[in-house]
Design goal:
Number of strands of chain B: 2
Shape of chain B: globular
CATH architecture of chain B: Orthogonal Bundle
CATH topology of chain A: MetI-like fold
Shape of chain A: globular
Order of helices and strands of chain B: HHEEHHHHHHHHHHHHH
Helix content of chain A: over 70%
Oligomer: heterodimer
Distance between the termini of chain B: 65 Å
Number of domains of chain A: 1
Strand content of chain A: under 5%
Order of helices and strands of chain A: HHHHHHHHHHHH
Number of helices of chain B: 15
Structural class of chain A: mainly alpha
Number of domains of chain B: 1
CATH class of chain A: Mainly Alpha
Largest sheet of chain A: none
Structural class of chain B: mainly alpha
Strand order of the largest sheet of chain B: 1-2
Number of strands of chain A: 0
Helix content of chain B: over 70%
CATH topology of chain B: MetI-like fold
Strand content of chain B: under 5%
CATH class of chain B: Mainly Alpha
Number of helices of chain A: 12
């Protein structure tokens, strides 16, 4: 059966294989050179070492950046998910005029050039007299995380049977009670998935953080600063590898949860689908 | 009558409650979405309006002169440096969207028509690299294409070239390669979604009526997937025109794009109004280019039928 499918796919499956290689190959060089003894990333490899990783915890600036990223990521993902829950619930549950326009506006940061989103927020924040800090970074990250949160949550919310909620209301639960005891447990996987996706985006996001931060660096900003020094490259590669692994794990868990949330409905496909 | 009346009160109550619920459905829905809507208004729409306003003002050192002027737009459109950067950005984003769509279509087609039970696994495999940091992906291309990089040292090790080539990094081709890789998944998903919607019986009908596989693809599947191709092209084209990281890391002098000039106006050059005018101009021009792309793809779609 597999052979027949491969035959019917023919050259397409070969192409698909090459395409996957093209997608993964560049990313794989980071971990490869992060465990190589030579300080410049080139072939042939010179030998195995974990020295670059061992050096990481002894860099105070890096630890600060990691702590900042964690704070920003947690705040941004919680806020974006709360706003995402409200919006996704409204979009999937209610019909009202202007619904599509509002949805389009909320999703817009997904397709706008990030630099333009960043500088326009920067202008407003400076005009309002807000001093740039991790707080302004959180505000920016929430804006770009909401579309992703919405996508994950909408596919989760569309899944469940509305009659269960009606039953709960008919049996005398208040609207809040119904939400807490019926709706919430059913959409919990989607909510956790949204938190993880938003955290990952915030963790990896550079442009908005770069424009909106004051003196405090997040991890991508720290990496950006280190890129100027060729001698720091192995450390950056090691840190980058850790970030890659973290993103990979978080997204895998998020995807498993999202699928669980969307199971039973026809919501196949990825986050954008 | 009385018998039914006895049974009525609870029924009437729920019905009344449902009616009230239905009547207030728009109100409830709107109330629920309003925090998110307000957030987007305050942090997206308002800022963009402020940028548009700034683009008509001028700056004297630290103070903003709020008299209306088109001077910034004159500079943005006629100064050779900005004109060149804008053209290059448009050229790069158009090329990148063309490449990503052409490279992505066969993959989307493969997953949709030959993916079998493993469709979602394929999609997952394709999207996962894109959840890693954009900055790190661009950085890895710098490592690959650099003078002492992977490609040069690899090619030298294989004896294909004698000395490192400088042609790989710090030019617009490096930017195009990096961006094509960075946006690949964004092109695959919309095309995949529209291919999933293609009614398979239509393809069968075309085959039954004597069209070969290629003809039925060109006349049925391809035109029907045009909406996916359009959104794939746009979802790549609009963000890439304003890309900042890639030109900065792998572009060198030849690969500088408009976003780098915009950033400079908000940073070192400290000319906010000019930066604002450059941003607005970029958005307007890319919108025009996007509109033209949609029209061209639609025209091609009609021709194919």
């Amino acid at each position: 059966m597999r052979a027949r499918r491969l035959l019917s796919g023919g050259w397409l499956s070969v192409y698909a294989f090459l395409y996957i290689v093209f997608l993964y190959l560049p990313v794989i060089f980071l971990p490869i050179f992060s465990i190589n003894t030579a300080p410049t990333p080139k072939f042939p490899l010179t030998g195995f070492t974990l020295q670059w990783y061992a050096d990481l915890p002894h860099t105070p600036a890096l630890l600060d950046a990691a702590w900042n990223s964690l704070k920003v990521g947690v705040c941004a993902s919680v806020l974006a998910t709360v706003l995402g829950i409200l919006a996704a619930r409204s979009i999937t549950r209610y019909r009202y005029p202007g619904r599509r326009t509002i949805n389009g506006l909320i999703m817009a940061p997904l397709v706008l050039p990030e630099v333009i989103v960043a500088i326009s927020m920067l202008l407003v924040m400076l005009q309002l007299g807000l001093s740039l800090s991790l707080f302004t970074v959180v505000l920016g990250h929430v804006l770009v995380c909401i579309p992703y949160s919405m996508t994950v949550l909408t596919s989760g919310f569309e899944g469940f049977d509305r009659s269960l909620e009606e039953a709960s209301a008919d049996l005398g639960e208040t609207a809040f009670g119904t939400f807490r005891r019926v709706t919430l447990p059913m959409v919990a996987p989607a909510i956790i998935s949204s938190l993880l996706v938003c955290f990952t985006i915030s963790l990896d996001e550079f442009i908005i953080a770069f424009f909106l931060t004051g003196t405090e660096a997040t991890l991508p900003i720290y990496i950006w600063g280190q890129l100027r020094f060729a001698s720091k490259l192995p450390g950056v590669l090691a840190l980058g590898t850790l970030l890659l692994v973290a993103s990979f794990l978080l997204m895998t868990i998020a995807e498993i949860l999202r699928r669980r949330a969307a199971r039973g409905t026809q919501n196949e496909g990825g986050l954008y689908a | 009558m009385t018998a039914t009346a006895e049974g009525l009160p609870p029924l009437r109550m729920t019905r009344a409650r449902r009616n009230a619920l239905l009547q207030s459905e728009p109100v409830q829905g709107f109330a629920l979405i309003s925090p998110t809507f307000l957030y987007a208004l305050i942090l997206l729409v308002l800022p963009i309006l402020v940028v548009i306003a700034h683009s008509f003002w001028t700056q004297h050192y630290l103070t903003i002169d709020r008299t209306f002027t088109l001077e910034n737009y004159r500079i943005a459109l006629t100064e050779p440096i900005y004109r060149d950067l804008l053209w290059r950005s448009l050229y790069i984003s158009l090329t990148v969207s063309l490449f990503t769509v052409i490279l992505a279509y066969p993959i989307a087609y493969f997953i949709s028509f030959h993916g079998g039970r493993h469709k979602s696994l394929w999609l997952f495999l394709i999207t996962i690299p894109f959840w890693t940091s954009y900055l790190l992906r661009v950085m890895s291309w710098k490592v690959i294409l650099g003078y002492n990089g992977v490609l040069n040292s690899g090619l030298m090790g294989l004896g294909i070239i004698d000395e490192p080539s400088t042609a790989l990094l710090y030019n617009s081709s490096a930017v195009i390669i990096t961006l094509t890789h960075a946006w690949a998944a964004f092109a695959i998903l919309p095309i995949f979604v529209s291919l999933e919607k293609v009614d398979r019986t239509l393809v069968e009908a075309a085959t039954d009526l004597g069209d070969g596989p290629l003809r039925s693809f060109l006349r049925v599947t391809l035109p029907l997937s045009a909406p996916g191709v359009i959104s794939a092209a746009l979802i790549v084209m609009i963000p890439t025109v304003g890309d900042y990281v890639t030109p900065k890391l792998v572009g060198g002098k030849d690969g500088v794009m408009i976003a780098n000039a915009i950033q400079a106006q908000f940073g070192k050059a400290a000319n906010w109004p000019l930066g604002a005018a450059l941003s607005v101009t970029t958005m307007l021009v890319v919108t025009l280019m996007a509109g033209a792309t949609v029209l061209i793809i639609r025209a091609l779609q009609r021709l194919a039928r």
